[in-house]
Amino acid sequence: MKGDFDNIPIVSLAGLADDANSGERSKTVAALKEALEVSGFAYLSDHGVSEDLVERMRQQNVAFHDQPMEEKLKLKINAFHRGYMPMSTSTIVTSSVAKVTKPNRSESLMFMHEVPEDAPYAGEPLQGPNQFPENLPEVRSTALEYMTQMTALGARLAGGIAEALGLPRDWFKEHFDNPTLFLRLLHYPEQPDEEELFGSAPHTDYGFVTLLKQDDVGGLEVRNKRNEWIPAPPIKGTFVMNVGDILAKWSNGRLVSTPHRVRNLSRRDRYSQPFFYDPSMSALVACPEEMLDKGETAKMEPVLYGDYLLERLNKNYDYRKKAS
């Protein structure tokens, strides 16, 4: 039953590989379907992303945040939502699962998809240049390589999710012809055990899917329907995947976008690198008629993904509120 879980399953993605046979693929799709219908979360193994690259990205995350504040502020976040966000500058006021009043106890460096200068959409909302630290050139090269491999993983997952919903494997493809990508390099310092204070307050994610790599500190928790917070500790060689709100709506509620939070009570610094794989800004998100059962109607009104996303960013980030 949806939301009735006590742990997060591990799903091998070996069956989504290009050389997998139809039986292997069917088994993987079934496991993915069950995980995303019940908990909305899964640990993904056999994902095909280089573990060496994952570790290099973690090291560059630590290196960036270890810098003096004046260095980090050289990359202060720009109007295209790319750059450095200091501690306590985001508050998840759009959370549908908690009344959030205190800013998150985290700092982060945000990258998004690269936008060619001559692209016809360059300069439109969220379509501008990334900011990379000049004094740490490996951050740029590692982040771009990481985003390339993670984008390929996101595309494979989209095919598996389509099949889990009874749709053709390539059903989502046209909606991701120019995907909206986020790579967020997060640092959570040790936090006091204070009521309503979080590294990341209880929330659901906005988008399609999130693919998270944690370090070994822990602190991520997922809420089941009994309002119990289930720990999601790191498991070596896996990503934590979760369904975002737009995928839950797209699936007419078949897949569940589950509340989660971060509390870093470890007395250590915590680093994580979530990657968000989302539709093109121009994609029209509408529940597919071919997925609906007889007599079933779509619960959501069609929406342009870019409009939907900007509304949430504008409400949750201090720098966007001040600019409006």
TrEMBL record:
Keyword line:
Dioxygenase, Iron, Metal-binding, Oxidoreductase
Keyword Metal-binding recorded = yes
Per UniProt, residues of the Fe2OG dioxygenase domain are 179-279
Q: What is this protein called?
A: Isopenicillin N synthase family dioxygenase
Q: Name one GO molecular function term.
A: dioxygenase activity
- Similarity field: Belongs to the iron/ascorbate-dependent oxidoreductase family.
PANTHER family reported for this sequence: FI07970P-RELATED, OXIDOREDUCTASE, 2OG-FE II OXYGENASE FAMILY PROTEIN
The UniProt entry, under InterPro entries, shows:
DIOX_N, IPNS-like_FE2OG_OXY, IPNS-like_sf, Oxoglu/Fe-dep_dioxygenase_dom
Keyword Chloroplast part of the UniProt annotation: no
User: One Pfam family name from the record?
Assistant: DIOX_N
